[in-house]
Amino acid sequence: MTAKILPQPGTLELAPSILSADFANLANEIRQVTNAGAKMVHLDVMDGHFVPNITLGPPVVAWIRKCTEAFLDTHLMITDPEQYAEAFVKAGSDLITFHIETVKDPGSFIKYLREKGVSVGLTLNPPTPVETIEKFVSLCDMVLIMTVNPGFGAQAFIDEAARKCRRIRQIIGPTVRIEVDGGINQETIAVARDYGADTFVAGNAIFAQSDRAAAIKSLMDAVQK
Fold first, then answer.
1. What are phi and psi of 181, to 5 degrees?
2. Beta-carbon neighbour count of residue 27 at 10 Å?
3. How far is CA 207 from CA 82, 152, 201, in A?
4. For 17-67, how does the pLDDT look when each residue is reduced to its tens digit (9 = 90+)?
5. Largest CB tally within 10 Å, which of 25, 134, 157, 161?
6. pTM for the complete prediction?
7. Would you call 102 helix, strand, or coil by DSSP?
8. Which DSSP helix (H) or strand (E) runs through 60?
9. At what angle do helices 58-67 and 26-35 cross, to 10 degrees?
């Protein structure tokens, strides 16, 4: 299966996170947000080791791939992404994002993922300094800035973490997407945009609302003002 191409930098994109969706009705949940205009779907993969939660694995991603043509933005919050990344690629992920702390040679792993035909992203946790990824960001298609401590949904937005977008944007210019994940709502989405982000992961702000199309419109109206 050929991976889909990440939307080019310069557009503002929402990536609804299925972490907040109803897993018993997942195909319909995804259909609702893509019908409302979302081009990307964010998949939070947690192993109970790197973060204190367990979510989904490659079989679930494979079923999601069967029910949507959306770009599958797969965030590996796991201790050994090098062992499991290929399985997620084969399952249908279009982008693999991993945490800088989890690999010994990020440059080689980025090259490996590119050879598998997917887009690649690096992730920064709130306490992790920008300097740890500085020499690798030009090799990536996306940098993901965590604006909460990863592991669970419905946490409060950490403004200090979001400010890292400014430094990342200075380093990479307009050629790489910057994604923020955590506490994104109608107020914080514009804050993150002003810091330099162009891709916004939203969970509760979308899936906790009865009208998902209205929730997406509200977020996009807020970020496009």
1. -140, 115
2. 12
3. 31, 15, 12
4. 999 999 999 999 999 999 999 999 999 999 888 888 889 999 999 999 999
5. 161
6. 0.95
7. helix
8. helix 58-67
9. 50
Q: Which two tokens stand for residue 149?
A: 């401590």
Query: β-pairing, 119-124 with 40-46?
Result: unpaired
On whether the CB atoms of residues 211 and 36 are closer than 8 A, the answer is no
Name the region of 10 (left: φ>0; alpha: ψ -120 to 50; beta: rest). left
Positions marked active-site: 44, 181
Q: Is residue 187 a contact partner of residue 159, using CB atoms and an 8 Å limit?
A: no
- Give pLDDT, residue 9: 81
173: left (phi over 0), alpha (psi -120 to 50) or beta: left
Please write the tens of the pLDDT for every residue from 56-67: 999 999 999 999
Place of tokens 């994604």: 179
Which residues lie across from 145 on neighbouring strands? Answer: 124, 180
Domains in the chain, please, with CATH?
A: 13-224 (3.20.20.70)
Q: Is 45 exposed, middle or buried (0-12, 13-18, 19+ CB in 10 A)?
A: buried
Q: Which residue has the tokens 């191409």?
A: 5
CA distances from 95 to 73, 107, 117 (A): 5, 16, 9
- Tokens in use for 67? 């029910």
